[in-house]
Design goal:
The chain has 229 residues and is an alpha/beta fold. The chain has two domains: 124 residues, Response regulator (Rossmann fold, 3-Layer(aba) Sandwich); 69 residues, Orthogonal Bundle (Arc Repressor Mutant, subunit A), CATH 1.10.10. The protein has nine helices and twelve strands. The strands form three sheets. The chain has a five-stranded parallel beta sheet with strand order 2-1-3-4-5, with helices on both faces. Strand 7 and strand 8 form a beta hairpin. Helix 2 runs parallel beside helix 3 and helix 7 crosses helix 9. The protein is elongated and about 55 Å long.
Length: 229
């Protein structure tokens, strides 16, 4: 079984190194980021199984990073680390998408126990891999292979088409926030990237148009929705 890939965002250099060394020794693959902005961009470009986010970070705090990630990935486990212990801060953490919350200082073995408990609840890496294959309406979609099979034909998607369609599929029958999708796929929600995404949406509509049970619609002022009847 491949190692689980953890992203750690911690601005305290010493603690960051300690976390990195400890979790690597426990069999995880780790990537350490020094602030929230770097963490978000690294997550967008990588393939991670678990996030450990410090709350108080420069540039972008952990709550903000979690909220932005939750807009396009509602499933990846998130554990917050913080020096704060007030009830209100914990509630804010859970509201922004946390699976658990660990207050500093803490024992490394407690951190490991929390990670393993969250992973068990999330059903681990094997189940996560299965979510790369979907059957929606008449289509078979494989996010790993970047293919859509429909009416006996297989269409291979470009990387950006695949990333965008995967977001739509994971959020089917729910609104996919436009800005969140732009940041996830293009890294920036500026006007030009927005026009580019509109072109990609049009391409995806053409690919699935023969399946009348599926439709990608615009939700004015919000984003897009993949309607699966």
């Amino acid at each position: 079984m491949s190692k689980l890939n953890l992203l750690i965002a911690e601005d305290d250099v010493n603690l960051g190194k300690l976390l990195n060394t400890f979790l690597t020794a426990k069999g995880f693959q780790t990537t350490l980021c020094e602030n929230g902005e770097i963490a978000f961009n690294t997550f967008r470009k990588g393939d991670f199984d678990f996030l450990i986010l410090d709350v108080m970070m420069p540039v972008k705090d952990g709550f903000t990073v979690a909220k932005e990630i939750r807009e396009f990935d509602k499933e990846i486990p998130i554990l917050f680390l913080t020096a704060k212990s007030m009830k209100e801060d914990k509630l804010s953490g859970f509201a922004s998408g946390a699976d658990d919350y660990l207050t500093k200082p803490f024992e490394m073995e407690e951190l490991l126990a929390r990670i393993n408990a969250i992973l068990r609840r999330a059903k681990g890496d094997a189940d996560k891999e299965e979510k790369n294959q979907y059957e929606i309406g008449k289509i078979k979609y494989d996010a790993s292979l970047q293919t859509i099979e429909l009416d006996g034909e297989s269409t291979r998607l470009t990387t950006k088409e695949n990333m965008l369609f995967h977001l739509l599929v994971k959020n089917k029958n729910e609104v996919l926030d436009r800005n969140a999708a732009l940041k996830a796929v293009w890294g920036d929600d500026n006007y030009f990237n927005g026009r580019s995404m509109d072109v990609y949406i049009a391409k995806l509509r053409k690919i699935i148009k023969s399946d009348e049970s599926l439709q990608i619609v615009n939700v004015h002022g919000q984003g897009f929705k993949l309607i699966a009847q």
